[in-house]
Amino acid sequence: RREPLALINLKKKNEETGEEELASRLDHCKAKATRHIFLIRHSQYNLEGRADKDRTLTPLGREQAELTGYRLASLGLKFDQIIHSSMTRATETTEIISKHLPGVKKISTDLLREGAPIEPDPPVSHWKPEAVQYYEDGARIEAAFRNFIHRADVKQEEDSYEIFVCHANVIRYIVCRALQFPPEGWLRMSLNNGSITHLVIRPNGRVALRTLGDTGFMPPDKITRT
């Protein structure tokens, strides 16, 4: 619903001529800026934790977050905000990353929490959540995609750079949806802990994937995918 034609009332006529001033009105509805979306997967965490509050980052996970934060800072970009999942491992990853990006505001959201976005095709034998989980999580993760991944607002004058710290399933689903690939293929991609995925959304709505799950900035012995 951000295509310019969807933002104007085609029935509204010019009072003097009775003709639609379509071209002029479309210009006022066209985005002018590019959005750069950096999707960060949380760092390694304690898999033994029974509740979310117990699934804290491991010492290695904290090192990974430091490396990711350093990498983001080294890009020399003016980041606008960090939006992160409200789960413990994503929140802790955000806190460490934000130390390298002083002054960048942080926003927590439940929409980006981990979950089962859609039944994968082809199916896998090692992961079979209950069908109801797809309905509950899928609707929420789809809402996250629609809420956060879109062309710039028409009022935005300059390009923006935004960071989203969340989870592998969420990122993989978002990438498929953003590129208009069948979302059922989300599980065919793998993402390392602390990895950076970079999406670019142009003013005309076109999306490009610059990087997927980049961890080339980490030493080999620091790379994990748990």
Automatic annotation (TrEMBL):
Keywords, alphabetical: Hydrolase, Membrane, Mitochondrion, Mitochondrion outer membrane, Necrosis
Primary location recorded for the protein, binned into one broad class: mitochondrion
GO CC annotation terms, alphabetical: mitochondrial outer membrane
UniProt GO BP: positive regulation of mitochondrial fission; programmed cell death
Enzyme class, first EC level, given as a word: hydrolase
Pfam families: His_Phos_1
Compartment annotation: Mitochondrion outer membrane
Catalysed reactions listed for this entry: O-phospho-L-seryl-[protein] + H2O = L-seryl-[protein] + phosphate; O-phospho-L-threonyl-[protein] + H2O = L-threonyl-[protein] + phosphate
Domain of life: Eukaryota
One example GO MF annotation: protein serine/threonine phosphatase activity
EC number: 3.1.3.16
InterPro entries recorded: His_Pase_superF_clade-1 (IPR013078), His_PPase_superfam (IPR029033), Mito_Ser/Thr_phosphatase (IPR051021)
Homology family: Belongs to the phosphoglycerate mutase family. BPG-dependent PGAM subfamily.
Name recorded for this polypeptide: Serine/threonine-protein phosphatase PGAM5, mitochondrial
